[in-house]
Amino acid sequence: MIDESSSAIPPDEPSAEGTRYTREQIDAMIAATGYDLDLHPAHIVRKVHQRATTCFQQVMAGEDLTPTQFAALATILRHGEVSQNHLGRLTAMDPSTISLVVRKLRKLGLVTRGASSTDQRMVIIQLTDKGVDYTLARLGKSKEAGLQLLAPLSAAEQALLLELLQRISDDQSSS
Fold first, then answer.
1. pLDDT band at 94 (very low <50, low <70, confident <90, very high)
2. Across residues 31-55, what is the average pLDDT?
């Protein structure tokens, strides 16, 4: 017979107090799985993302600009005019997100949106002259945000971290 008071196996019925599990049982069940939120890779990546966003916001203080909006601007600057769909793929944004980003950048007068000369169904995005000037003037600040993010690491650790993160982000087997 299994003693439910000390077993990691959950009881079938709630106790007389109305709770199904004791704290000790829950702790034992969690321990049996090996789960630890503080060591979970996705949780750590989320915390690093939060830190990256904070670094960006501090460096870009006073700007009405998010990291995703800047990623779109820098990508268009690098590639020239691109379809909205391709811009989304290049910046790893889903169609609804890139649509919102482009709408905001248009509102700021930094990009224009028009139909392709070869395929009227394709939406083409390009920087305005204001968008080129704006983006060029902020590339250094964005680089500074990245340096702030990586500051706790040595140069070798920074290179290794970036290499490992790139390998994970490029892995198509899990997509």
1. very high
2. 95
Q: 3.40.50.970, 1.10.10.10, 3.30.365.10, 3.30.930.10: which CATH number matches 39-166?
A: 1.10.10.10
Locate the domains of the chain by residue range: 39-166
Q: How far apart are CA 106 and CA 131, in angstroms?
A: 10
**Beta strand pairing status for 111-115 and 82-83?**
unpaired
Query: Is it the case that residue 6 has pLDDT exceeding 90?
Result: no
Cα(137)–Cα(73) distance, integer angstroms: 12
The answer to whether the beta carbons of residues 76 and 111 sit under 8 Å apart is yes
SS3 percent helix, strand, coil of the chain, rounded to 5, is: 60, 5, 35
Separation between Cα atoms, residue 44 and residue 38, nearest integer Å = 7
Say how far apart CA 111 and CA 129 lie, in whole Å: 9
Total residue count of the chain as it appears in this document: 175
CA distance 114 to 83: 9
Instruction: Provide the mean pLDDT of the chain.
Output: 90
Average pLDDT over residues 96-120: 93
